[in-house]
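Researcher: Sequence recovery benchmark, item below. Answer with residues only.
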């Protein structure tokens, strides 16, 4: 039953139309599950908020809800027994679809995240971006949107010409290099070209050859690209991410002159004192955006402008969401404004969401993995420590220990990246991340595995199925079902706010509330009816946890 709609309709019948968001959902039910403040009505109705609330509350009668006036609010208390019955019957009938609403029907969202840079391994700084983008993609897909996952490659610029020129100088065959060697080559070539003018000139020649599709240059560049993507694909496989496009800077560079001409023809761009082509956005409260430098090289803001407009043609999106670190806030404000000044409606569909810094806590892990810890090494370490913990806890019997340790390790990293509001910085501590108690991914996975063990135990005792009995509900179970009732609303709000951490925190609330029920009440009892009723609550919680795991990208662990 949609209790909120019933409350809204009842209030509107008494006072007329108002914005639906005035009826708020309360985190706890101390002052009602829903509250309607009457303060904004005081001037119009010429009564005090208290009088209005008293009058409205006295006239509303809703089956399954108690209505009261309190301090200028109309509060709605849902009958918790009836609510629990509604939630369970819906879950039994619809499964996890109960938590779904098709809010994105016929809408397309493109999400730009991860952004592989060629000749480089992913480091810890890429982890939050990749996990955040994956979770948001899952959330949009679940709630009815068609999602296009875009990985905007950093595959353009003179540094790849530098790599080729430097490899020739030191007689290093790029075609025989693995990703570790390519990354070392990348780092060394930048320094070498700064110290050698002739080498830098050769690098510029190779860069031009790459752009001109010279056979040798293209072969070497394509190898660098292929080797990088092969290395990063293993990371994407770990997190179960599949991209729809890897078109990057090199792809959209071919459109740059078209948009440069438009900017010039519409008198949006100017030539700076040093000959660079710029757009001065200071009149709009922004900064100067340099599109072409004084040496005549196009820069990434121009490619981002071209990519934004061309991507709409390619994907026909209703929204394009860019996910980057907060250092890019001003860059995207400039890009979006320039697209708007060019007259493209695309500008109204562009959105940038940002996240805080992700860093390693000083200590053994930092020393072992280095200041710019590679994501592949963090994943390996997480799985290794998970495996060690499983063995130490004596949980290794009758399970595929390698598969379980992988799921726990990945789940721990995913939850850690999504457990904090995305705008906040995170200092990464792998030991805390892998704990089986506290607010962690392994804790959530353990709660689900514990529930599954109850199902197995009941079945072994000849107890099959669930039979919800509202007369046997405990107060802890009522709290559980209240959380499950508001789970969908929480998830949709998290989607609208682009904030997966709201789902992470809610899952912790569900798990902790369930554990209070579990710790205070025996589940498998000698009373079959009581057992089946309590297993019904376990069933409801397991559905919610699995649903939330799939939203965030946490692997489901059936047994631990």
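Model:
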């Amino acid at each position: 039953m949609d209790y909120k709609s019933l409350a809204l309709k009842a209030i509107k019948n008494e006072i007329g139309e108002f914005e639906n968001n005035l009826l708020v959902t309360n985190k706890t039910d101390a002052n009602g599950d829903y509250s309607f403040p009457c303060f904004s009505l005081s001037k119009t109705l010429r009564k005090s908020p208290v009088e209005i609330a008293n009058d409205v509350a006295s006239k509303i009668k809703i089956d399954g809800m108690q209505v009261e006036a309190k301090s200028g609010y109309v509060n709605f208390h849902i009958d918790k027994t009836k609510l629990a019955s509604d939630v369970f019957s819906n879950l039994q009938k619809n499964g996890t679809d109960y938590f779904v609403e098709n809010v994105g029907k016929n809408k397309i969202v493109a999400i730009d995240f991860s952004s592989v840079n060629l000749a480089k391994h992913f480091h810890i700084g890429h982890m939050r971006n990749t996990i955040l983008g994956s979770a948001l993609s899952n959330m949009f897909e679940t709630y009815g949107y068609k999602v296009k996952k875009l990985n905007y490659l950093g595959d353009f610029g003179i540094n790849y010409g530098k790599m080729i020129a430097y490899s020739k100088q030191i007689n290093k065959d790029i075609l025989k290099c693995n990703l570790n060697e390519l990354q070392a080559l990348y780092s060394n070539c930048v320094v070498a070209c700064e110290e050698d003018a002739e080498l830098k000139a050769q690098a510029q020649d190779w860069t031009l050859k790459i752009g001109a599709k010279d056979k040798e240059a293209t072969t070497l560049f394509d190898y660098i690209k292929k080797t990088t993507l092969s290395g990063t694909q293993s990371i994407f496989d770990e997190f179960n991410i599949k991209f729809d496009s890897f078109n990057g800077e090199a792809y959209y560079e071919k459109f740059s002159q078209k948009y440069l001409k438009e900017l010039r023809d519409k008198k949006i761009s100017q030539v700076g004192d040093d000959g660079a082509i710029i757009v001065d956005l200071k009149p709009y409260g922004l900064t100067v955006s340099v599109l072409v430098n004084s040496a005549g090289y196009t820069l990434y803001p121009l490619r981002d402008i071209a990519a934004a407009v061309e991507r709409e043609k390619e994907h026909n999106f209703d929204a394009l969401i860019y996910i980057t670190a907060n250092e890019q806030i001003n860059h995207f404000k400039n890009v979006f404004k320039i697209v708007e000044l060019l007259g493209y409606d695309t500008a109204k569909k562009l959105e940038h969401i940002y996240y805080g810094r992700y860093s390693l806590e000083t200590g053994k892990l930092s020393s072992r993995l280095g200041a710019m810890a590679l994501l592949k090494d963090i994943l390996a370490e997480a799985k290794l420590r998970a495996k060690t913990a499983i063995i130490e806890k004596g949980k290794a019997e009758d399970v595929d220990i390698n598969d379980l340790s992988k799921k726990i390790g990945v789940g721990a990293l995913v939850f850690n990246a999504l457990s904090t509001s995305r705008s906040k910085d995170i200092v990464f501590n792998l030991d805390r991340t892998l704990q089986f108690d506290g607010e962690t991914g392994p804790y959530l996975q353990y709660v689900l595995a514990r529930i599954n063990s109850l199902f197995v135990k009941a079945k072994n005792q000849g107890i099959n199925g669930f039979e919800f009995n509202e007369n046997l509900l405990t107060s802890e179970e009522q709290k559980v079902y209240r959380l499950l009732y508001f789970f969908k609303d929480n998830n949709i709000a998290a989607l609208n706010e682009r904030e997966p951490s709201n789902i992470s925190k809610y899952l912790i609330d569900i798990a902790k509330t369930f554990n209070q029920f579990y710790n205070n009440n025996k589940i498998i009892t000698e009373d079959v009816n009581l057992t089946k009723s309590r297993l019904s609550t376990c069933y409801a919680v397991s559905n919610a946890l699995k649903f939330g795991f799939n939203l965030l990208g946490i692997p489901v662990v059936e047994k631990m």
